[in-house]
Amino acid sequence: MKKMFVNQVVGRVRQLFGLSVCISLNAVALSLGAQEISFNNGTVTVMPSEPVGYEAVTADAKPLNLSEVVAQIQYPKACSNTGIQGKVYVRILVNTEGKPIKHTVLKSDNEALTEATLKVIYNLVFEPGKLDGKAVNSWVTIPFQYKIIGSASTSAIHMLP
Question: Can you give the pTM of this predicted structure?
Answer without folding.
Answer: 0.63
